[in-house]
Amino acid sequence: MALMKGGFIFTALIIGCMTAATTGTMVGNSTVNATLGQSVTLPCVYNPNAPLDKHSMRIYWQYQAGKDPIAMKMYNKGVMEMGTHINKKYQDKAKVAVEELEKGNFNLTLDAVEHSDQGTYQTVFMYNDKKVLECTNWVHVGAEFSKPEVSVVSCVTSVEKVKEVEVTCRTRGGFPRPSIRWSSGNCSADQEADDKIKESSQNKTFVVRSRLTVNASVGQKYTCSIFNPTLGTTQENSVTVLQCLVPKPFPTTICVIMVAVVVVAAMLFVFFACRKKNANRPREGTTAAAASAAGYDLETQKLQGNGNYGNHTDEHDSKIL
Ligand SMILES: *[C@@H]1O[C@H](CO)[C@@H](O)[C@H](O)[C@H]1NC(C)=O
Ligand SMILES: *[C@@H]1O[C@H](CO)[C@@H](O)[C@H](O)[C@H]1NC(C)=O
Ligand SMILES: *[C@@H]1O[C@H](CO)[C@@H](O)[C@H](O)[C@H]1NC(C)=O
Ligand SMILES: *[C@@H]1O[C@H](CO)[C@@H](O)[C@H](O)[C@H]1NC(C)=O
Ligand SMILES: *[C@@H]1O[C@H](CO)[C@@H](O)[C@H](O)[C@H]1NC(C)=O
Ligand SMILES: *[C@@H]1O[C@H](CO)[C@@H](O)[C@H](O)[C@H]1NC(C)=O
């Protein structure tokens, strides 16, 4: 009885050992969306029932964009191979944790993702020269768009009024081509936006400008949403239509004070100018013409000054508009 039981356990052990390395759960075959400039991990995990013997292991990682696969890394019987068949580009760019391989973690990390890293990656694990696991990762590259700047270049004069205004949304730095959505409150805008999407020459990212013309009233909020189809993320921002500021009449007391200051300053200037002239050239004297010329100049300066002030207020108002 005891002998039989021992034999059964022994048999079970042998069978267990034989299947240990070739059964187990696997993780692989996935779509991975990577962010431009950052690193990304391509998962490939094998959970063996018993520890793996590194002398029986062979793993290779390869990349396929065109026809022929490119060898990135190769692990053979306990060592990472550095042969000429391994592509130089991936020596530093691609990383695997060597000490983790015996535990079945064949994850590969790619640093500083570029557009050219988009493609198919394969990890093949062989145990005692038999293929045990093959992981395929499809890598898509995307870049996040900047938070959009949303602006409205107009205002509405009164709360009851409706006015046609132009709302603009700008963003950049993202990839691939985004989809743009406008909404107001819970409703998406039914008007057609005028979109301009340009590819930057340096790094293939996109510069986006979208313009929406709407009949808006005061307090209406417009939201611009930029959706990145690869990263699955949305960047958005809003603007609210404002009521125009009514230009305030310029306070008369300040006007009077300013005119008085200018007049006094002008008088003092003329006074000192005359004295200086008299002192420098006592013989020539001061002609009435010279004095009045100085006075005339001051007068024009003063007028120009006032004119500028008026323009400035106008400009200020139109900006708020
Ligand atoms: C991944 O897909 C390949 C076929 O494309 C298949 O042979 C392999 O078993 C799959 N691996 C996993 C871990 O699902
Ligand atoms: C392998 O990479 C995947 C994806 O980043 C991660 O979820 C997983 O935890 C990694 N596995 C191990 C064992 O580190
Ligand atoms: C791409 O280039 C644009 C300028 O054209 C720059 O603003 C952006 O930061 C760059 N993005 C990356 C990821 O290098
Ligand atoms: C928008 O929708 C949410 C729920 O979907 C609702 O609670 C909210 O009142 C709505 N807002 C407006 C302005 O219609
Ligand atoms: C705004 O309203 C006016 C008058 O009803 C109309 O002619 C115009 O097409 C409208 N504009 C938009 C963008 O809906
Ligand atoms: C990854 O990118 C693909 C293709 O661009 C897309 O279909 C998928 O939804 C993305 N996955 C996630 C999780 O965002």
Automatic annotation (TrEMBL):
It is found in: Cell membrane. This is CD276 antigen homolog. Residues 148-240 form the Ig-like domain. SUPFAM superfamilies: Immunoglobulin. The lineage of its organism: Eukaryota, Metazoa, Chordata, Craniata, Vertebrata. GO terms for cellular component: external side of plasma membrane. Its main location: membrane. The keyword Disulfide bond applies. PROSITE patterns: IG_LIKE, PROKAR_LIPOPROTEIN. The chain crosses the membrane at residues 250-274. The keyword Signal applies. Keywords: Cell membrane, Disulfide bond, Glycoprotein, Immunoglobulin domain, Membrane, Receptor, Signal, Transmembrane, Transmembrane helix. Residues 1-24 form the signal peptide. It is a single-pass type I membrane protein. It comes from Scleropages formosus. GO terms for biological process: cell surface receptor signaling pathway; cellular response to lipopolysaccharide; immune response; negative regulation of T cell proliferation; positive regulation of T cell proliferation; T cell costimulation. Gene3D superfamilies: Immunoglobulins (2.60.40.10). InterPro entries: CD80_C2-set, Ig-like_dom, Ig-like_dom_sf, Ig-like_fold, Ig_sub, Ig_V-set, T-cell_Activation_Regulation.
